[in-house]
Design goal:
It is a single chain. By secondary structure, the protein is mostly helical. The chain has a domain at about 30-250. The chain has helices spanning about 20-35, 35-55, 60-80, 85-110, 115-125, 130-140, 140-145, 150, 155-160, 180-195, 205-230, 235-240, 245-250, 270-275, 280-285, 300-305, and strands at about 255-260, 310-315. The protein has a two-stranded antiparallel sheet with strand order 1-2. α2 packs antiparallel against α3, α5 runs parallel beside α10 and α6 crosses α13.
């Protein structure tokens, strides 16, 4: 059974139009909007403190605490800012986390946070911050917040979200969606071949060069693909290998978008702005939360809904059939 929380609506005055009841409802409404940011902040800091206490490594307290704080600040701003300025909250979180991951962890700590970095550490049996990052953000984290990392913390999306094609024509039908799985297999195969057949071990500055090369290849494919398909998130849909991991846990995510079917007039405003082209009203009218594993929890649909039908909610359900907007053939 799907568990849903009601959408948060703006406070209304009393029947005689007096302003006093409206004022009484203003502050609780603002506090309700901060429930999700506060929950994310608490979850990340709980993990940070637990790892710090168990390992006695202050790095985990700083690393996970910083990411959690960045997410809390970004989601909090998104919740409180007016509609036309809400994207600033998400962009701030993307920038704070993306620059930290690539700049600080890459250049100063020499951690390869690309997927190949994870594969190297796993194949060589070396425990590192990359393993912690992928475990929290992309393996077990999606059980709580789905693919929220893709919407709020990805350093590749930090750049491509600035491109002009934030409204696409839909998913391309056919085998395009399988390219991400081929990319995942090629990355794993490359690392496994180097480690087990040639005895290669990335040492010294090698992790930095792997990280830089990986990032350049991502940007070199993501940006032209966005212009070619007129879709900022084309790379995320078709080429990025990371969702192969994240889609598994996101089926069971506790945090999803929900809405009351009685309030939805099926105007399709949410579909028009959804960067992942999810047919949101199809889920709402079926009495479900947004169960698509392509949802990146960016909240764009929530702020675009003219009837305030949509909101973030906590619940127990499982993702199933993908309801996606397909672009016309030809």
């Amino acid at each position: 059974m799907t568990m849903k929380e009601p959408a948060i609506h703006s406070a209304r005055g009393s029947e005689n139009g007096s302003a006093k009841p409206r004022a009484l409802h203003t502050e609780p409404g603002r506090l309700n909007k901060l429930r999700v940011p506060a929950a994310l902040l608490l979850i990340f800091w709980a993990v940070a403190i637990t790892l710090w206490r168990r390992t006695r490594m202050i790095f985990f307290l700083f690393d996970i605490g910083y990411i959690g704080t960045s997410l809390g600040v970004g989601t909090g701003l998104y919740a409180l800012l007016p509609r036309h300025r809400k994207p600033l909250g998400r962009r701030l979180a993307q920038f704070l986390i993306g620059v930290y991951m690539v700049g600080f962890l890459g250049f100063f700590v020499l951690q390869n946070m690309q997927l190949e970095g994870l594969f190297f550490f796993l194949c060589t049996g070396v425990f590192s911050g990359a393993i912690i990052h992928y475990s929290i953000a992309k393996l077990f984290g999606p059980l709580i917040f789905g693919r929220g990392f893709c919407g709020w913390a990805c350093w590749t999306a930090m750049v491509i979200d600035l491109l002009p094609y934030d409204k696409s024509k839909g998913w391309i039908p056919g085998p395009w969606k399988w390219m991400r799985y081929a990319h995942f297999a090629l990355s794993l195969g490359l690392v496994a071949t180097l480690v087990f057949l040639f005895g290669y071990r990335p040492q010294g500055l090698a992790p930095l060069w792997w990280m830089l090369t990986g990032n350049l290849l991502y940007y070199a494919s993501a940006i032209p693909l966005a212009f070619l398909l007129k879709d900022n998130r084309a790379f995320c849909k078709y080429l990025c290998p990371v969702p192969v991991l994240m889609k598994l846990g996101s089926r069971f995510a506790l945090l999803k978008i929900s809405g009351a079917s009685g309030n939805c007039n099926q105007c399709m405003a949410c579909v028009k702005v959804c960067p992942m082209d999810i047919r949101i009203p199809d889920y709402i009218m079926a009495g479900q939360r947004i169960l698509s594993t392509e949802c990146i929890l960016c909240q764009t649909c929530v702020s675009a809904c003219p009837t305030n039908t949509l909101s973030s909610s906590w619940g127990l359900d499982m993702g199933g059939h993908e309801r996606l907007q397909l672009r016309p053939r030809g």
